[in-house]
Batch of 4 targets.
Target 1
Amino acid sequence: MIYDVIIIGAGPAGMTAGIYTRRSGLSVLVFENGTPGGQAATTHAIENYPGFTEPVSGPELMSRFFEQMMNFGVEMKGKRIEGIDVSGEVKKVFADGEEYQAHALILASGASPRLLGAKGEGKYRGRGVSYCATCDGFFFKDKEVVVVGGGDSALQEALFLGKICKKVTLVHRRDTFRGAKVIQDRINLKDNIVTEMDQVVEEISGDESKVTEVILKNVKTGETKIVPASGVFIFVGYIPNTEYLTDENGLERNSQGYLITDEHLMTNNPGVFAAGDVRAKNLRQVATAVGDGAAVNPGVEHYLSEVKES
């Protein structure tokens, strides 16, 4: 079977694209190797998604997306993408040893947390080092933890951890946060959240089984200090999930690896589109991912109509 559209990724962008393309009467196959919802599904509270007067949890919101998409009859497979071939008019997707074909592809594979690169990070990953407070925060109830980062994600997760942990030390390499002012104000009202500005994590250390402390270094003075901690939560940005792409695919990417698209969200390869966090753009939020998922549909429909007429 040759599908009209294959979508790689079931985050907010991929699921929205699935809803819109299926509503247009297209045959749609979505691949997702992890939990539907992507990074949004690991977010404790989403406060800025339109239509919700109260914060909604990421898992709850993404479950609604998923249910709606499946109700429209979108086909979905939980397989790992090994590669794609976009050299011909019919696009090929290789997943877990099998080949799937479609006239158009929508790459919505999202992005993953960027590693900090500090000594001990790899050793203690899963043993105190985490990239998801919603997933792992419960394990550190009434304990002291460190949160690294200065954007919205880091501040939001610090607030979440502040509700269950004894103490949260928020570490940022600059002297001001990048996160929204309203979130910063909430941080300042929390007695059990302390900030360490102009600091970087020099080392994460502990015993054989768990983290016990974090060594910080002041970027201006070079001085170091030891912060006791049972857990370290890292939020220092993301990298696009494009490991299934090779240079042979010929898809243009920017210096950070994000896919470059035109106003119709099509890449430089006709019939190959990109939506959501994997795409080069200025803002990565659930709302912008949803916008991409909707905006990509007209371009896909137009492209398919030209293919079928030729």
Note: Residues 252 and 260 are 6 Å apart (CA to CA).
Target 2
Amino acid sequence: MNKSQLIEALAKAENLTIKKAEMVVNTLFDNMTEALVKNERIEIRGFGSFKVKCYDGYQGRNPKTGAVIEVCEKKLPFFKVGKELKERVDRTSEQ
């Protein structure tokens, strides 16, 4: 499912216009993004949680030339699946 399919599903399920459903989805994603930018954790019970993980810099190698390069430290969003979602997905894959 992509973003436009999510918008269409929300519009259909809640009897909203596409514009209103798009506004709801965009607001949700914008707020989640802002929370992660502020290094806040997002928890959606039964679904999972999002947080920002910090990775230290390190020395790597350019695979083409073999030259040593310095890889800067970075922060990346990380998703951890919730128990209920994990079990539900696993159950459906067994059938």
Note: The chain has two domains: 1-38, 41-95.
Target 3
Amino acid sequence: MKKKIWLFLLFSWLPIYNLAHQRIEGTVFLDINNNGLLDKGERGIENVPVSDGKTIVLSDSTGRYVIETTKEKPVIFVSFPSGYFPQKFWQKIEDDGDLQNINFPHYKIKEKSRFFIIQVSDLHITFSDVCYEEVAEFIKETNKLSPDFVIATGDLVMDANPLKSDEEVEKYYKLYIHLMKNIKSPLFNLPGNHEHPWQISSSSPLYNKGAYKHFFGPLYYSFDYSGWHFVMLEATIGEKVRSGFDDEELSWLEKDLSLSKDKPTIIFTHQPPFECQNFLRFLGIISNNPQVKVVFSGHEHANIYLSLGRILNILTGALSGSWWRDNEPNLDGTPRGYRLILLEGDNYTSAYKWVREKHPIDVPFMMKQAVMKGKHTLLVNVFDMDDSIKGIAVRVGSKPPLINLNPVSRNQFWKTYEISIDTTLLPNGDHRLTFYAVSRKPEDGKRLWKLEYPIKVENE
């Protein structure tokens, strides 16, 4: 009899234990004196989403929020609104029990009708001279361009997966922070599949995704800027990281997008969505949210344009090229680089820029080993901030180059040209498609920029 009573008490207690939660309260506010403290007279900011990655609550008219979480040591973050910028948009909760005054100070910023950002991906920061030099050059160029912010879409460190001690993991993460600290624009990060150490003790707070959360906070999050909504999603799959888009993340995404129906939206991921589990559910969410304009990813160390139904998934080449090996380029032959994304109204445009080069060439939708047949019209972007490009040319195989001097559009960074080629003039088989940009200015020194793609012609 006593045994039955004991079992009854045990199992009647378990549901209460499983439902145990932590109540976290605080204020989202305008920090007028910029001291990080909620002082008397400083007003709250209402209708700001606050989340633990599962639940989303909105701050009230006084800026107050209350969130109840069942997560252990949760990361609480705000999706800060347009016209504001946070001193820090996330806080990792280390204490147990209910907490008050987990506050999020913000300052006012000027909204813009036109702005631009930089996406950099697959940096694979490591202890090598070529890494130090190229990252320093990227930072120098970024500071000169002065984007509104920078987004690093994963594989921030060379490879944390096989590291065997907390000290080694911290060393690589701290190296990334050290090398990137000189970027003057705000920097937002995402985890890649190389960010998760699984060879260290599973009891370590840095184990698996713990390292990223320790240094950079939430694995996925969002914010608004000048009327646009930006969503950073965790999309990482590896030998022992079988998540991709898990159900909790996609449920959060549905809630997040439901609060931003009136804002043009861009989603960033590390691995392209089609490689992730729950891809079909993700695709359904995107289909039900027409405000989503594009998804930018990395991971493949190549510049690739993929279809996600009505929108594009644009993959950006790696800053590390082929993992810093002997100055090798990306796997598709494009040089090391990063992407500029321009936003105006509810429209976007983007182009891939090579590091260290004044007039790099970007050919959207062109792929290495592409099969071509018949007549094609290609767009070619050439970076030309000082209007020094004399013209561009394309050569198919050994045929003379076709020259087009008239750009169809231009912005402050690049000109876009339209080129028509006819592969019926070539025999079937392997050929090389070469794009040239020619500068008119002797002071450029290097007067010719070139980008090559091996192709296969298969005319009927």
Note: The CA atoms of residues 398 and 432 lie 8 Å apart.
Target 4
Amino acid sequence: MPMIDVLWAKGPNQQKKDAAAAKIADAIHEATGSPLTSIWVNFIEVETDNFYVGHDSLTELRRKRAAAANSTA
């Protein structure tokens, strides 16, 4: 039984998680032949203050992106 844990920054809505889980399950099914009913996908939601890219938290990166968008508008 394949079990896949996905670290996921909090924020995306349920529809996005549903779509991602379906694609992940389909890919595992295709690669292994495991029945879809035996493939488990678990989303582990991480606060954006605890999710880093390089030196910046995702919270900070989102703030910088919003500031840049506002300065060009």
Note: The first strand starts at residue 3 and ends at 9.
